[in-house]
Design brief:
By secondary structure, the protein is an alpha+beta fold. α1 packs across α6. The relative contact order is 0.15. About 5% of the residues have low confidence. The structure holds a DNA duplex (16 and 16 nucleotides).
DNA sequence: CCATAATCCTGTACGC
DNA sequence: TGCGTACAGGATTATG
């Protein structure tokens, strides 16, 4: 699933291949994929056509392209299966093609999304509350202190230099919830999904159900460091998986699979101690952990 | 305000 | 073989 490292790989690919190009036409093949665009498919096409793509910016799992002239951006969220594919020349058909942006050199930017949890929308920009840049970005105006309105409530991510780690740690300890729930809360810290939460917790040797209000500052920092480190490692490998014509998320499985310690490895030995990895249902999904390295707390918060 | 459950969607894996 | 069901899950919305 696209989490921070995958989205950053896509953002980097967009920065390399579509910046400075102009949208010449828009085809919405599935209205549901633009459901977050207030004006509907026709309005989306109208707002995009003729606009130049000036910058590619990301915060957590949200990414956006700044548009020229007005203070608007094309926001993309990949959901669970979204891909943004840069095509040169006449683009091929694809069974899950949802939106196609024609570009001024004859190529296209295709939004392909099998499970349709992702979306595209053109939205206004609003100031960042802390006055820092909107996120990690490249291109003209990428460092402006603005974010798309629907991203205003999304916290900075662990790879953002403007993240205030001390305040984040305090915010974790002020919550009354479980540690993994907090890691997955995009309004606290963004970019972490189910896979990297499990992997980060394994690295930190902390159980997902540890109550946040009973964690030490050092423990919270360990959890955040674990997530940051595993995402950095995944990002380093993600950079190798696309070529010049193809900006690819590479999906849920693939390039980083071999490096996963617990996710999808129920019953297999923990890489650290050999104890069989366990799995339990959690928040309509699942959690995987090593019962020896990550002992369950006496009073778990779920 | 805070925490949590329900909801959206589609392809794959599985049991019977 | 074919059918039904569970599952994968991020963000928003609704509810307590």
């Amino acid at each position: 699933m696209p989490e921070l490292p995958e989205v950053e790989t896509v953002r980097d690919g967009l920065a390399r291949h579509v910046l400075g190009r102009t949208v010449t036409g828009v085809e919405v093949r599935r209205d549901y994929s633009v459901r977050r665009h207030a004006g509907g498919p026709l309005d989306l096409a109208g707002r995009l056509t003729g606009r130049r793509l000036d910058a590619a910016v990301r915060r957590g799992k949200f990414l956006w392209l700044l548009l020229d002239e007005r203070d608007e951006a094309l926001v993309a969220h990949l959901g669970m299966s979204g891909q943004l594919l840069v095509r040169d020349g006449e683009p091929p058909e694809h069974p899950h093609l949802r939106v196609r942006l024609r570009l001024d050199d004859g190529g296209a930017l295709d939004f392909v999304d099998q499970r349709t949890f992702g979306h595209l929308a053109v939205v206004e920009l609003v100031p960042t509350p802390d006055g820092g840049p909107g996120g990690t970005g490249t291109g003209t105006g990428a460092d402006r202190p603005v974010v798309p309105a629907p991203v205003a409530h999304i916290a900075r991510d662990l790879l953002d230099p403007h993240l205030d780690r001390g305040r984040l740690v305090d915010a974790f300890r002020a919550r009354r919830t479980g540690l993994k729930r907090a890691l997955l809360d995009q309004t606290l810290v963004s970019g972490i999904g189910n896979i990297y939460a499990d992997e980060g917790l394994w690295r930190a040797r902390l159980h997902y159900a540890r109550p946040t209000d009973r964690l030490s500052r050092a423990e919270v920092n360990r959890a955040l460091d674990g997530c940051a480190e595993v995402m950095t490692a995944a990002l380093a490998q993600g950079g190798t998986s696309f070529d010049a014509l193809y900006v690819d998320v590479n999906g849920a499985s693939g390039y980083f699979d071999r490096s996963l310690a617990v996710y999808g490895r129920e019953g297999e030995p923990c890489p650290r101690c050999g104890t069989p990895i366990r799995r339990a249902s959690f928040m309509n999904r699942s959690s995987a952990w090593c019962p020896r390295c990550q002992p369950q707390p006496r009073r778990p918060h779920r």
